[in-house]
Amino acid sequence: MFSLVLWAGLLLLSFAIAVPVTNHWAGGFQARVCFKIDKEMSSWVIHLTFDHPVETIDVWTADAQSTSADKKQWTLTSKNWNAVEHVGDELCIDLMGHGTGDFAPVITATLEGASGGGSHQVATSAPATTQAHHQGVATAAPVHTTPLSVPDGNGFPATTRVSNVRDGRSDHYLTFTISGPTVMGWAVKFRCSKPVHNLNVREADPLSHNADQTEWLLVNNDNQITIKPGTFELKIELELVTGRDSAPQCSATLTNMGVDKHTCGQPPNKANSKYNYDDVLYKSILFYEAQRSGKLPANNRIPWRGDSALNDGDGGVDLTGGWYDAGDFVKFNFPMAWSTAVLTWGLLQFKDAYQAAGQLEWMYESVKWPLDYLLKCHASDNVLYVQVGDGGADHGSWGRPEDMKMARPAFKIDATKPGSEVAMETAAAFAAGYLAFKEKDPSYSAKLLQHAKSLWQFAVTHKGKYSDSVSAAAGYYNSANVTDELCWGSLWLYKATKEPKYLEEALKHYDASPDWGMSWDDVFIGNQVLLYELTKEAKYKAAVEGTFREWFPGGTVPYTPKGLAYRLQWGSLRYASNMAMAALMAAEVGIHPDEYRHWAMCQIHYALGDTGRSFVVGFGKNPPVSPHHRSSSCPNLPVRCNMNYLHLDTPNTHMLCGALVGGPDSSDGYKDSRENYVNNEVACDYNAGFQTAVAGLRSLLVRHLHPEQKGGATCPYHGRAP
Ligand SMILES: *[C@@H]1O[C@H](CO)[C@@H](O)[C@H](O)[C@H]1NC(C)=O
């Protein structure tokens, strides 16, 4: 059905044309393929046929993919920014192919275009669609989608000087006067009065030109990535198509591709609280949208993100989707499942907050995204994929997921190589999802429960640590042991079904000792709170109190001078936020609500601005601008992205709205630098407890139970634990 609809819009726009090879050498060749556009297109694919196998193709203005086993058939697919082509345009693509030996292949090409409703059109019309879809809760901030485009005349114009004219060749000196921020990645549009055969620039590479070769697009190469404000000179050595002709008149504009004017927007603070929680919830959900892997939906609100990792899978198992873990592009299921469970817990417990903030529909979509992926990962009863991507290869590179070329192996657990903690964490996410979607989507909800039960059975029957079974995960998300997750997953199944066998299993693994600090590998406090909620037995309340005695002032957890409960230098705000979330959950079941809520509020307000700065990108006063995050740091397409962008001290090109950064050191020190991954990385698991805690505080405002409404909202919190 879907493919029929899709194909209806496709047009075969050309007969096969011959593609000239412009250069070749041992192991490679260069070619340029051009089509005149005579139909309006919203996206396109070029089919290439070679008479010789081609191992790889480098091309910056399309995505190349081999479509035959003999590597003689290839496709080039449009990028978001060049998908739309109009009648009269000429589409030219330069490519470099690699193979064995020195060969100049015979190449033919056909162009196929979509006539509308293609990915680009859907993406640009998204705001209208989503507004209509979410009518009634459409208090979300205005979202400005600025479609990416090849830069044109709105950059810095050049003054030009010509010298050394000889035999159809000439040297053109372009002087640009650069103002504003430091240029981080740039493109030059270069126009001449006569057709240009070739041009040579030390600092840039030509990307494309128009049909008559009078208009060229160049992008910087690694010789010169940044340009400081002031004058900047480029020397272009140019060769005309007609040799011997006199030098042409040329003009040029340079555009800073490291600036994206798209901002996050901001919903009003309807509740008039000290911090605009609605804004935080809106933006945190946007952060998870920016982390999406796979085919993006039509209502994607992140204009600088596109489809990526569309081949994730193993054999016949489709593993596309899910979230990229942090600043990188590995999909680590253990923290992803934890984050999904914690966010879904927040949706269940604080639905009124998401409703009041106008974010309820977005929140359902937000948690459904990883749940859909995790369902794909549970390929059969005793098979669960737990990671896609190789941490070493991924962390050794820097770029956009849309451009990613490296192999992405998939790793699974099964009966012989078990992983009870990741299976239980996933079961917990499914059981929470079952409860969250019960009324909204009963059949989806039933499917989640069925998978939760099956995974639970797998986890208790085949016990083992996933990081022993999957060595690829061990260096990144190694698990200490499986006991707390066996309890946690069982408790979520019990909460969902009330079947006693789940409670019995949970109690076998319960640990009443004070929690060191909740995170993706530690759900002790979650177990203590859930057990009290589900049984109301005093001993579980005592365990919760024991944990927070360590965490409140005077306990064993140290505090920064400005009042952050400081567990670890790596992601300090994450631990404080997770414990704030747990305290708010404990308050919901009646454990010292006044004290726990006040303490939790102060921890969250530290992150939101109590020290004079915000630690949430795009939110509040003086927020971070250079989080350690690859895709948002890259310049706009079509400029290439690479490791250089990690080390530049300019802000990230794109605003990674809503991301909570790692946080301060033990004396409240913090450096907003992309290289500072200890304090300035972002991650799906950092935002999960944080967002749920903010939802908890927002819910208190709805119910008039917030410390600001009850009096006594001063921070830092100095009281001892009750
Ligand atoms: C599991 O690991 C945690 C954290 O290291 C530890 O506190 C707990 O005692 C361990 N449990 C078992 C049963 O080994």
TrEMBL record:
Catalytic activity: Endohydrolysis of (1->4)-beta-D-glucosidic linkages in cellulose, lichenin and cereal beta-D-glucans
Positions of the catalytic residues: 628, 672, 681
First and last residue of the signal peptide: 1-18
Highest classification ranks of the organism: Eukaryota, Metazoa, Spiralia, Lophotrochozoa, Mollusca
Protein name in the entry: Endoglucanase
Domain Glycoside hydrolase family: 277-693
Pfam families: CBM_2, Glyco_hydro_9
Coiled-coil ranges (or none): none
Species name: Pomacea maculata
MF-aspect GO terms: cellulase activity; polysaccharide binding
PANTHER family to which the protein is assigned, alphabetical: ENDO-1,4-BETA-GLUCANASE
The entry's keywords: Carbohydrate metabolism, Cellulose degradation, Glycosidase, Hydrolase, Polysaccharide degradation, Signal
Annotated EC: 3.2.1.4
Family: Belongs to the glycosyl hydrolase 9 (cellulase E) family.
InterPro entries registered for this protein in UniProt: 6-hairpin_glycosidase_sf, 6hp_glycosidase-like_sf, CBD2, CBM2/CBM3_carb-bd_dom_sf, CBM2_carb-bd_dom_sf, Glyco_hydro_9, Glyco_hydro_9_Asp/Glu_AS, Glyco_hydro_9_His_AS
GO biological process terms, semicolon-separated: cellulose catabolic process
Domain CBM2: 20-114
